[in-house]
């Protein structure tokens, strides 16, 4: 059994912010604290998600691909559209599909209108795994992420504005 890390006496990001201000970078201190906080929060959330998905043998990227196929009308999508919807490079889609296909969770076939393109389809085994993984994520991560419902809505709004400003959508 692994031991939980001990809590720090002070927030290291707050300490760094104080140092930023002390060194004359006060204008950049709030941004540094926000970006560093986001990056640390991402590490915390990723660890929780990884732990929830570990029993299913899939990464979050592969889980997202399975869910995207689950949400599609026919359970199939062109690989190019998968990359676009998940906002990842085609090489990442190919890698994820390769692994999911090897595990029997998806199939890949030649696109009927373009022999250079591929269609990915979710198998019954893939649907089952996606459903069980979703139950685990909902119970272990999504239902109680450590913020109030009001804070969650505010966070989604703020991060959404940041993403939009960056051209994410």
Automatic annotation (TrEMBL):
PROSITE patterns: HTH_MARR_1 (PS01117), HTH_MARR_2 (PS50995). GO terms for biological process: response to stress. Residues 31-164 form the HTH marR-type domain. InterPro entries: HTH_MarR-typ, MarR/SlyA-like, Tscrpt_reg_MarR-type_CS, WH-like_DNA-bd_sf, WH_DNA-bd_sf. GO terms for molecular function: DNA binding; DNA-binding transcription factor activity. Keywords: DNA-binding, Transcription, Transcription regulation. Coiled coil: none annotated. It holds the Pfam family MarR. This is DNA-binding MarR family transcriptional regulator. It comes from Calidifontibacter indicus.
């Amino acid at each position: 059994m692994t031991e939980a890390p001990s809590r720090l006496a002070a927030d290291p990001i707050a300490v760094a912010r104080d140092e930023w201000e002390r060194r004359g970078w006060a204008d950049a201190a709030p941004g540094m604290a926000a970006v560093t906080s986001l990056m640390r929060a991402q590490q915390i959330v990723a660890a929780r998600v990884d732990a929830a998905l570990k029993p299913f043998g899939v990464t979050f990227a592969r889980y997202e691909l399975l869910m995207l196929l689950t949400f599609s009308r026919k359970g199939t999508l062109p690989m190019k559209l998968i990359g676009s919807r998940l906002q990842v490079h085609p090489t990442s889609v190919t890698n994820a599909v390769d692994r999911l296909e090897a595990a029997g969770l998806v199939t890949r076939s030649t696109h009927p209108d373009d022999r250079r393109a591929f269609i990915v389809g979710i198998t019954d085994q893939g649907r089952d795994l996606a459903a069980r993984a979703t139950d685990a994520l909902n119970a272990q991560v999504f239902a109680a992420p450590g913020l109030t419902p009001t804070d969650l809505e505010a966070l989604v709004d703020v991060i959404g504005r940041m993403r939009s400003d960056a051209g994410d959508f």
